[in-house]
Amino acid sequence: MSMPQGHRDETNEPSWGWKAGNDMAQPGRRTVLSLLAASAAATACTPRARDRSASGEDHRVRVWHELPPNEQARSMTQMAFDFGRRRPASAITIHESMVGPGYLAQLRKAIDTANAPSLAQLPDILVPQFAQEGILGDVTGFAEQYRDIFDRGPMSHITYLDRIQGLPLDSSPLVLFYDVEAWDSAGVAVPTTWDDLLKVGTTLARRGRYITDFPVNDIAWFAAICDATGTPWFRVADDGDWQINIDSAQVAALALTWQKLVRDAGLPLSHGFTSPQIAQLLGSGALVGHIGAPHDIPALVSGLSRRPSSRQHDWAVAQLPNPTGQSERIVSYGGSSWAVFKDCPSVTDALAFAATCSRNAELLVPRGLMPAANVDKLVTPQAWQFVGSDVVAQLSDLGARITRDSARSPAWQATCEAFAPITRAWTGNAPVSTMLPAVADAAARQTERYGLRVR
Q1: Of 262, 358, 368, 388, which alpha carbon lies 20 to 30 A from 382's?
Q2: Which domains does the chain have, with CATH numbers?
Q3: According to the UniProt entry, which residue ranges have a biased composition of type Basic and acidic residues (predicted)?
Q4: Is 355:348 a contact under the CB 8 Å cutoff?
Q5: What is the tens place of the pLDDT at every residue in 220-270?
Q6: Quick one: which H or E segment has residue 315?
Q7: What pTM, to 2 d.p., does this model score?
């Protein structure tokens, strides 16, 4: 899902699950470890935001973002200019922040030097940790007026322990992209169960074709797969206790199945969907599917452009199978939100600008981002027509139906650090499932350090 290709981490460092626009920014492990270092005894302490603009004191809003440049899309500078014309009292300043892995490091430096922005684009998966550590402001009272323009699933991504920290930006549903003609010639259909999906993967592999790549360093991708099958890694129980399912029997079985596909069926390991390796696999016709999110479409377009015109096929988007016993489960992967920081001088202006950006299809869609807000009209770019003339509306509809019970954890950083050795084990003989208890223990310890209870 993304634009003129920005930077994407193609190293062997594990990524942390944020795909910002086309560049799929994946902050490196060391970057994020230093980025979010917190007191071991920290407890949830999101300060209630105070709006100084209400008394006419201060309407300044400093905005950080990581939307890469795109000639087909509106720029954030244009958005700020238009917003200022409609609200002359507002003073929106767009910070020219780094695009790529350095963005979060820049942001942390600004926080550490008391120069934090008022409003910043954050990966959804890191919102709980920023909130838990008191970096963000509780804007629940201010944000209530925007609930009607955002569906509940995306809204849950910027909510932590029932307190709203900002507004969602993009919905980013996890879906299956597939080459219609290649699948037809292989005699396989869109799977309706997860067992079927894995059988399709095996059938395609026997023909030298692959149902998807496996982003070995992207821990959030495998976490999203587990979530989609009905086993999210984290859940908050009704009594406030945290449930950690990383080493559950369901996740262990899923890990073994995917390890078998990687090791025995030759499923290609990737280090980012914009990597030359993926472009080559798409161009050769070997990669005939991809489990990912809308932000991968620009890279899909680029890779498929390598095929000769005689071998250009139509692709389609399909919803992933529902878990056994559930009518529907749509999960998010790699989305981001607008987070309001605790010292924001004008929460009212910050949220109004965030809502304006989140509803602007011209800002988001060319970058492969599906607006999290309700938008009246969505147009599929001409270059995307091979995936379906109405694919943007289709993806937007799926994003609106994202599940709300996938709790993102403030212990995500510790989880990723503990999971890192597994990224090198998928091709080995040792069962990945045997390594999961150590990851679950690390997540539990960090959760308890925050003063939260673990079942």
Answers
A1: 358
A2: 61-171+334-386 (3.40.190.10), 173-332+407-450 (3.40.190.10)
A3: 1-11
A4: no
A5: 999 999 999 999 999 998 888 999 999 999 999 999 999 988 988 889 999
A6: strand 315-319
A7: 0.87
